[in-house]
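Practice problem 4.
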């Protein structure tokens, strides 16, 4: 996980700390860092911000002897990355739902994203996570567009012993979401998870449908599901979905196979919304709540 970026950073740090850092040669060091970040799927604007923060931290502190310079530079990078990943608007979906459950309120979560990111499987993983933490769950089969999508969702739900609210293909997805929420309120179910059709961020009609679902269902949490391996494409998608409906957080899939980690950095910085879950395998248990410190240490390497 993140081997490529970590090794590239180590090389850049070694290369730029063979002499004492000063304001004069710091620019070269920071430029080397920026190139490494961009080459590892970190968006240009995010790489620039990390470099600026790193530079400030280095200039604001006196480095020790030359042999300590490598650790000093790496610590500045680590602190800068952690600053980027620490959300402006933190979100813990389990804690959020727990607070609402105590007040007798249903928590509704809408899952959005493009085709092929593992959105439906991610929804099933989140459903399993909530069940394991003592919540009751119902699922709305809001993807009435892709052939086989309802059957795929039903198979997941059957394995997890969760009810699916559905209609025929071609039905109004917003109406299905509304029905699922009404069912949850009537049956005192804690969590409603709404699946939606995968849609390209450039497809205006499908984006308008997604806006309608969000308008009708009024979900408490809107989660963008992105593929960590998509790099800057995932960032572009997140930006457009955030612009369309205002996402509250992101879930990154296939993080276990991601050599760079750039997508998480970019999405968190550009949307100002946190990554809340990461997918690290194929099983229902293979989902983890996102920890910025854990992620940063594996991304940069700790000292």
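Answer key:
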């Amino acid at each position: 996980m993140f081997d490529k970026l970590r090794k590239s950073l180590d090389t850049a740090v070694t290369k730029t700390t063979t002499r004492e850092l000063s304001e004069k040669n710091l620019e070269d060091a920071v430029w080397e860092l920026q190139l490494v970040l961009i080459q590892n799927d970190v968006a240009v604007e995010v790489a620039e911000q990390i470099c600026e923060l790193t530079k400030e931290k280095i200039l604001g502190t006196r480095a020790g002897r030359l042999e300590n310079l490598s650790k000093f530079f790496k610590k500045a990078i680590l602190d800068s990355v952690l600053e980027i990943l620490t959300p402006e608007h933190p979100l813990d979906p389990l804690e959020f739902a727990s607070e609402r459950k105590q007040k007798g309120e249903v928590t509704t979560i809408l899952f959005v994203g493009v085709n092929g990111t593992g959105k439906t499987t991610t929804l099933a993983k989140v459903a399993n996570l909530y069940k394991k933490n003592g919540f009751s769950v119902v699922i709305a089969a809001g993807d009435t567009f892709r052939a086989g999508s309802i059957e795929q969702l039903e198979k997941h739900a059957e394995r997890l012993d969760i009810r699916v609210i559905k209609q025929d293909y071609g039905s109004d997805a917003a109406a299905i979401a509304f029905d699922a929420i009404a069912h949850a309120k009537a049956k005192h179910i804690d969590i409603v998870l709404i699946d939606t059709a995968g849609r390209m961020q450039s497809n205006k009609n499908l984006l308008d449908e997604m806006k309608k679902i969000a308008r009708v269902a009024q979900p408490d949490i809107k989660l963008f599901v992105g593929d960590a391996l998509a790099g800057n494409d995932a960032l572009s998608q997140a930006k457009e979905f955030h612009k369309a409906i205002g996402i509250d957080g992101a879930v990154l899939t296939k993080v276990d196979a991601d050599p760079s980690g750039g997508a998480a950095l970019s999405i968190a910085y550009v949307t100002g919304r946190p990554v809340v879950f990461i997918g690290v395998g194929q099983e229902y248990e293979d989902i983890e709540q996102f920890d910025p410190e854990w992620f940063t240490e594996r991304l940069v390497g700790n000292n």
